[in-house]
Amino acid sequence: MRRIRKWHALLVAAAAALCVPASGVSSSSDNSMITKVGKTEGQLNLIAWEGYTQPQWVKPFTKATGCKVKPKYGGSSDEMVTLMRTGQYDAVSASGDASLRLIFGKDVRPIDPKLIPDYKNFIGALKSPPHNTVKGVHYGISLQWGPNTLLYNTKKVKPKPTSWGVLYSSKYKGKVTIPDNPIQIADAALYLSKAKPSLGIKDPYELTDPQFKASVDLLKRQHALVKKYWVTAGDEIDLFKNGSATIGASWPYQTNTLQAAKAPVKDLIPKEGATGWADTWMISSKAKHPNCAVKWIQWVSTPKVQAQQAIYFGETPANTKACVIMDKLSKGSCAQYHANAPTAYFKSIKFWKTPTKDCGNGKSNCMDYTKWQQAWTDIKS
What we know:
Layout (H helix, E strand, L loop, with lengths): L8 H10 L24 E6 L6 H11 L2 E6 L3 H8 L6 E4 L1 H9 L3 E2 L23 E2 L2 E2 L2 E7 L1 E5 L22 E4 L4 H12 L13 H14 L3 E5 L2 H9 L5 E4 L1 H9 L4 E4 L6 E10 L5 H11 L2 H11 L2 E2 L4 H8 L3 H4 L6 H6 L1 E2 L17 H12 L1
Parallel strand pairs: 1-2, 1-3, 9-10, 9-11, 13-15
Antiparallel strand pairs: 3-13, 4-13, 5-6, 7-13, 7-14, 8-11, 8-12
Helix pairs in contact: 3-4, 5-6, 6-14, 7-8, 10-11
């Protein structure tokens, strides 16, 4: 994981001034740090990635706490940030390209990790990662992580693909699907970092104007090949089920769901590597049910729930104690989803983060996220 950018410094100072410990969890305490949990409110409104609020762990949670979960699936980090700012939701499963926006927008409350009993069992890299912890203050609790994958129909796509380049090839024109998300520009940049090393791309989220233009141009050429830009995981699942798409950028969740339905699909991480996500549960500064939100984070941090979600979605748990349970639930799943992998594997994934002008080398000539959003609109037009 990377260090917090210099441009955050002044914002951090302002945010830190708001992080005054509160005497309890109150929906009116806004930006104060959550240090205690009180009586639950009976309801919990969540924004989550599809597959993060499944009945097998939601129903026992409601029975144990009395908190009835009402989830809203977000199709992208941009949508999640927008929804959180409405004040209608208590918590969000934010990825790294959303979490810092929420922190510096004062949309989420800091939380004392001591409130989460299983926090001590998390892998070191996810205890205080820079995408949810600023100046030692935790604005959320890490959940799960994993890579973005290349999904393909084993009967229609031959030979077996080995490169992301297949998504830019006319061979599968009209059968390609990719996420409707500006952060997809990073996937094109990752591919170009290997396909065109002369561009000098080191970080797919830190792109100078020539690097950014090359990535955008590649995606513009790809546009004619794309059947549909999928918004939710369900969209892509339907495309593969009905044969409208045979290859695309995906998450392990889609693979698991399609394989369970006997669809002829597999996924892989191509030779260029992969981007990925590291998600965090964050509590809204406008939460109406903050005590239920804390109880939820406690619940989903336990080894059993971490194991259940990891297997269902096809991702890696933050809790190291989940590995044994994963293998009990599904033999070999701990290794399959890299729950026992060395730190090197974690570091090999280019995790989503919000692009800024700061290039990480003392220069400020990289394209910020506003430019990414504008370019994405142009790509699809």
